[in-house]
Design goal:
Length: 828
C-alpha cells in the first residue's frame, strides 16, 4: 500500500491541505517499514524545503529520517552486503545492490509499527495545549474526556497549564475539582506554583475543605506556600466564621513568616474585627508596621478606621494614647472616631472628641456633622447644634440645605416642634430647597400632632417642589390609611398622578396594598374601576396584592377570583400568594380546591414550598387519605418541584403518627440531601416509632445519626430505646447505653435504673446489679424498698455467693445506704 501514499500526499496539496510534521513522520515510517529508503531520503529533502526541519550539507538524509522517527542512527544503519559466502541481503536498491539493516530488527519493526499506530490517534496533548492558549477551556476539557477514552495520558506540563487556566476562571472551579479527582497521579505531581493557585481559587469560591486539603498536601511535601495563599485562606475562614481552622492556620502562617500584601491589609483586618478578635488585629498591625516601615502612618489610619467601624472605638481611644506622641490624629481620623462612637452609642465621648476638634479649628465632615446635630438636639444641647450648623455653613456653604435639614430633623426628633417650625419658615423665606426626607419628617410630625393645616401646607409645598418621592409617598399613604384618613390618601394619589413624575401603576399598587392592609377593601373596587378607565393595566404586583390583601380581609372568594384571573392571564403568582391561599383553603376544609391549585402549579412546573406541601399533605392525612398523601409527596419529588430549603419536620411527625415510618425516613433523607438537617423532634418521633415496632437496630442507626448532626434526643426517646434493649435481652448494651448517658452529663430516669437492676437480678448477675444500684444512688435516686428487698432475697438464695466476704460487704453496704445499721439493737 506504500505505493499509494505519494498520491494521497499530492491530492492533499492539490486540495490546499498543507502537510505538517505529523504527516511526513507517518510517510517516513511507512517507507522505512517497506525498506524504501530512497523515497525516505526524498521526503527528508522535501521537509527541509518546507522549513519543517534543518538539514546541513554534511548530514545524511537517511540518518535524519531515523532521528525524526525517534531511532538512533548509530544503532540503525543501512549496509551493503559484500559477503559472498553468506548472504545477508534483505532487499535491493534501484541499481541492484544487496542491502540490509544492521540493527535489532524486532525492536526496529516494533518501533516503526508504533509510530504508524500512534498516527491513527490524534495528538491530544498538542490540541489541549492549543485550546488552553486560545482560552477555550470548555473545549480543552472535552478533549481531555476524549483523550481518556482513547487510552492516552495527559502530559504533566499540559495538565499543569490546564489547571492554572481553570484556576483563573471562577466559573470553572468545579471542572478543576473534577479534573484533579479524575487524575490523582498527575495531581500529586503538580508544582508549588500551580498548587498555590489552586488553593487561592478554592478560597475565592468559598470551597474551604478543598483548599485545606490541598494546603495540607503542600505542607506535607514541604512546598513553599505563598503569602497570597495564606491570606486568601485566612480571609475565607474568617468570612465563613470557621474560627477553629482560622486560629490553626494563623499559627501555621506565622511560623512560615507570612506577610500579607499591603493592599489586602484593610480587608483582612475588617474580617478579623467582625469576628471580635482584637488580639489578632493587634498581631496583624504589628506585622504590618514591622514589614512596611515607610507606610506606618497609612497603616495606623487604616487600622483606626476599621476598628472604629466594627465596634471597637473605645479600644481605638486607648490605641491612640499608646501611639502618642509620634502619631497625631488628623481631620479624617477624628471623623472615623466620632462615627465609631456614635455607632456604639457613646455620645458623651463623641461630644468631647468634637470639642477637641473645634479647639483645633477642625470642622467635622458633613455626614458626621449631621449625626452630631441630631444627637446634640436629643441631648438638649440645642445651642451647640446650632453652632455646629453655623460652622458647616461657614466651612461648606454649598451644603447649607443639608445643615438646615439636619437641624430640623434634630428639633423634631427631640420634640422641639416650635423651633423646627421656625427654622422651616426661615428656610422658606431664604429660598432654600428642603430635601424630601425632611419634608416627610415634617408631615409625619404634623400628623402626630394632629395639625391637619400644617400637613396640608407642607404637603402642598413638597408636591409643588416635586419633593414627594415614591418612598415618602409610600410612608404617607401608609400613615393616612392607618390613621383613618383614607380620603387624604386618595387625594394624595390624585395629586401625584397630576404631577406625572411617578409611574401611575406603582402609585395605584401602593394605594391598593395599604387599603387592603388597613381592611378598607370596599374602596379597592373603585380603585380598580378607575385604573380600568385610565387604561392602567394591573401587573403581577397588583394581582399579588389583591390575592393576599383580600385573604387578609377574610374575603376568600375575591382572593381566589384574582388568583384564578392572574393564572389565566399567564402571570405567575408569588410564592407568598400561593402559600397563603392554599394553606387557608386547607384550614377551612376546602382540600379539593387546594389540590386543584396545586395541580395547576404542577402542570406549570412551579415549585411547592414547605408550607404548601405540609398543608396539603396534612389535610390528606387528616381525612384518612394516607396513600394519597404519600403519592402527593412522591409526585413533588419526581417532578423536581421541591425547593432546596424544604422542611418536612411536621410531616415526619404526622407520618409517624400514622405508622408510616419508612415514608418519614424518606422525607428526612430528602431534607438531608438538600443540606437541611431535620430537627431533633423529627428524629425522636421516628426512633420512638421504630422502637414501638420492635425495630431496634433501625432506631439505633437514627439515634447515632442525631449525634453526627449535633442533635440532642429527648429523655423519653432514650428511655424507650433503653426499655427496648431490656425487652430484647440485650442487657449489656442497655447497661452500656445507661453508662454513656451518665458520662455525657445526662441523667437517666429512675425507671431506667430500676428496669436495669431488675433485669440484671433476673439474670442472677448480682455484681452488675449492685454496681447499677450504686450508680443510681450517685445521680441522686433512692431505690425503693421492693427493689432493695428483691436484691437481698436473691443474695440469700444464692448460698455460694453469700459465703464470699465480698458479698457480705455488699449486703452491709446495701442496708446501711438504705438507712439500716447492723449494730442497731431491736428492743421490745
Amino acid at each position: 500500500m506504500w505505493k499509494h501514499a505519494r498520491g494521497i500526499l499530492d491530492e492533499m496539496m492539490d486540495r490546499g491541505t498543507i502537510p505538517d510534521m505529523s504527516t511526513f513522520r507517518v510517510l517516513l515510517a511507512g517507507y522505512c517499514k517497506a525498506r524504501k529508503f530512497e523515497e525516505a531520503k526524498g521526503l527528508v529533502s522535501e521537509m527541509k524545503s518546507r522549513s519543517l526541519i534543518e538539514l546541513s550539507w554534511s548530514e545524511d538524509p537517511l540518518s535524519k529520517a531515523f532521528l525524526i522517527l525517534g531511532l538512533n542512527p548509530l544503532t540503525v544503519r543501512l549496509k551493503r552486503d559484500n559477503d559472498v559466502r553468506l548472504s545477508e541481503t534483505e532487499f535491493f536498491d534501484d541499481i541492484g545492490n544487496g542491502l540490509y539493516l544492521d540493527t535489532d530488527l524486532d525492536q526496529y519493526e516494533n518501533h516503526v509499527n508504533g509510530v504508524l499506530e500512534d498516527s491513527n490517534v490524534p495528538n491530544f496533548n498538542s490540541f489541549i495545549r492549543e485550546e488552553c492558549i486560545n482560552g477555550n477551556l470548555k473545549s480543552a476539557l472535552l478533549l481531555v474526556e476524549e483523550m481518556l477514552r482513547w487510552g492516552q495520558e495527559l502530559l504533566l506540563p499540559d495538565f499543569s497549564e490546564l489547571v492554572r487556566r481553570l484556576c483563573s476562571s471562577r466559573s470553572q472551579i468545579k471542572s478543576m475539582t473534577h479534573l484533579l479527582e479524575k487524575m490523582p497521579q498527575l495531581a500529586c505531581k503538580l508544582d508549588q506554583e500551580t498548587l498555590n493557585l489552586v488553593v487561592q481559587a478554592y478560597c475565592k469560591k468559598g470551597l474551604l475543605s478543598n483548599a485545606k486539603f490541598i494546603l495540607e498536601e503542600m505542607l506535607q511535601r514541604k512546598l513553599r506556600v505563598k503569602n497570597e495563599t495564606y491570606t486568601a485562606l485566612l480571609m475565607s475562614l474568617c468570612k465563613k466564621g470557621n474560627m477553629r481552622d482560622f486560629h490553626n492556620y494563623w499559627d501555621v502562617a506565622q511560623k512560615d513568616s507570612w506577610l500579607p500584601a499591603f493592599y489586602v491589609f484593610e480587608d483582612l483586618l475588617t474580617y478579623i474585627c467582625h469576628q471580635k478578635m482584637i488580639g489578632k488585629a493587634l498581631q496583624l498591625l504589628e506585622i504590618m508596621l514591622l514589614s512596611y516601615p515607610h507606610q506606618r502612618s497609612g497603616i495606623c489610619y487604616a487600622f483606626l478606621e476599621v476598628v472604629c467601624a466594627t465596634g471597637f472605638s473605645g479600644f481605638a481611644l486607648g490605641f491612640l494614647e499608646q501611639l502618642r506622641p509620634w502619631f497625631v490624629l488628623d481631620h479624617a481620623g477624628y471623623n472615623h472616631l466620632i462615627r465609631g462612637l456614635f455607632k456604639e452609642g457613646k455620645f458623651d465621648v463623641a461630644f468631647s472628641i468634637l470639642n477637641g476638634m473645634l479647639d483645633k479649628n477642625l470642622a467635622p465632615c458633613l455626614d458626621v456633622s449631621v449625626l452630631l446635630i441630631d444627637q446634640l438636639c436629643k441631648a438638649g444641647l440645642h445651642d451647640k447644634a446650632i453652632a455646629l450648623k453655623d460652622i458647616i455653613l461657614k466651612e461648606h456653604s454649598a451644603f447649607s440645605t443639608s445643615s438646615h435639614c439636619a437641624l430640623i430633623h434634630g428639633f423634631y426628633n427631640s420634640g422641639n416642634t416650635e423651633k423646627a417650625d421656625t427654622l422651616f419658615q426661615d428656610i422658606l423665606s431664604k429660598g432654600l430647597i428642603l430635601d424630601s426626607e425632611v419634608c416627610n419628617i415634617l408631615i409625619q410630625a404634623s400628623f402626630k400632632a394632629n395639625d391637619l393645616r400644617k400637613v396640608g401646607e407642607i404637603l402642598g409645598f413638597t408636591i409643588r417642589k416635586n419633593l414627594v418621592t415614591l418612598s415618602s409617598y409610600r410612608s404617607l399613604v401608609r400613615m393616612m390609611c392607618v390613621t383613618g384618613r383614607v380620603p387624604d390618601a386618595l387625594s394624595l394619589k390624585n395629586l401625584m398622578l397630576e404631577q406625572g413624575t411617578s409611574d401611575g401603576l406603582v402609585l395605584y399598587n401602593i394605594l391598593i396594598f395599604y387599603l387592603l392592609s388597613s381592611r378598607n377593601n370596599s374602596l379597592v373596587n373603585k380603585i380598580l374601576d378607575e385604573m380600568d378607565e385610565k387604561k392602567v393595566v394591573p401587573n403581577e404586583v397588583t394581582y399579588n396584592f389583591l390575592v393576599y390583601g383580600f385573604l387578609h380581609c377574610k374575603d376568600t372568594f375575591r382572593s381566589l377570583h384574582y388568583l384564578t384571573t392572574m393564572i389565566e392571564k399567564e402571570l405567575k403568582p408569588s410564592s407568598r400568594s400561593m402559600r397563603f391561599v392554599i394553606s387557608s383553603l386547607c384550614n377551612i376544609g376546602e382540600l379539593q380546591k387546594a389540590l386543584e391549585f396545586s395541580q395547576e402549579m404542577e402542570s406549570r412546573g412551579w415549585s411547592h414550598g414547605s408550607v404548601i406541601q405540609n398543608a396539603i399533605t396534612e389535610g390528606l392525612l387528616s381525612h384518612g387519605k394516607i396513600q394519597e398523601a404519600e403519592n402527593f409527596v412522591d409526585r413533588m419529588q419526581e417532578g423536581l418541584l421541591t425547593p432546596e430549603n424544604i422542611n418536612y419536620d411536621n410531616l415526619v411527625k404526622q407520618f409517624c403518627q400514622h405508622g408510616r415510618l419508612d415514608k418519614a425516613v424518606h422525607l428526612m433523607n430528602i431534607m438531608l440531601k438538600k443540606h437541611n438537617v431535620p430537627t431533633s423532634s423529627s428524629y425522636d418521633s421516628v426512633i420512638c416509632g421504630f422502637c414501638a415496632q420492635n425495630k431496634l437496630d433501625r432506631a439505633l442507626d437514627l439515634y447515632s445519626e442525631m449525634f453526627v448532626h449535633d442533635l440532642k434526643p429527648k429523655i423519653k426517646t432514650q428511655e424507650m430505646l433503653f426499655h427496648c434493649f431490656c425487652q430484647h435481652g440485650r442487657t449489656e448494651e442497655a447497661e452500656r447505653f445507661l453508662m454513656d448517658m451518665i458520662e455525657n452529663g445526662e441523667t437517666p430516669t429512675r425507671e431506667m435504673f430500676c428496669s436495669a437492676i431488675n433485669t440484671l437480678r433476673m439474670e442472677k448477675n448480682l455484681k452488675k446489679a449492685s454496681e447499677m444500684m450504686q450508680a443510681m444512688q450517685q445521680v441522686g435516686y433512692d431505690p425503693d424498698f421492693e427493689t432493695h428487698w428483691s436484691l437481698i432475697s436473691n443474695l440469700s438464695d444464692d448460698k455460694a455467693k453469700h459465703t464470699d466476704n465480698r458479698s457480705k460487704r455488699f449486703l452491709s453496704r446495701l442496708l446501711s445506704e438504705s438507712g439500716f445499721s447492723l449494730k442497731r439493737r431491736f428492743r421490745t
